[in-house]
Design brief:
globular, 3 helices, Nuclear Transport Factor 2, Chain: A
């Protein structure tokens, strides 16, 4: 299945974007985030953002909480692609260097992300991330 293989390659890039984000760099994530609305972000502390521009701006703002040297892993429990829609669900586990903290902070998020094709490329249109206890 062409769309599955294409999406699997995209998810390798998504993993690299998550790694960069935990190092404080939202550039790769911004490049794969929807350029046109609708787009949504349900953040780990209960806040939410709607609209493609506002979602990208929030990702950029939040990335500044992270300092270089963090580690990140996406544990994908399920993923799939069909037509112009794709998704993955699972866990994002990180040991993050947060600005203002002297020690690395472990984080585990339960994540759902939904993607759609824009101009032939997969773009993140919805992220729901929720902190969970270890």
């Amino acid at each position: 299945m062409k769309e599955t293989t294409d999406f699997e390659r995209f998810m390798q890039a998504r993993t690299r974007a998550a790694d960069a984000y935990v190092d404080g760099d939202a550039t790769l994530l911004a490049a794969m985030t929807a350029q046109t609305s609708p787009a949504t972000f349900f953040g780990p502390h209960g806040a939410f953002v709607t609209g493609a521009q506002d979602v990208r701006a929030r990702y950029e703002k939040d990335s500044h909480n992270f300092a270089p040297g963090g580690k990140d892993d996406l544990e994908i429990l399920q993923s799939g692609a069909s037509g112009d829609l794709a998704y993955w669900v699972g866990f994002q586990r990180a040991t993050a260097n947060l600005r203002g903290k002297s020690e690395p902070v472990p984080m585990t998020l339960r994540v759902t992300e939904i993607f759609r094709r824009e101009s032939g490329a997969w773009k993140l249109v919805h992220r729901h991330a929720e902190m969970i206890s270890e």
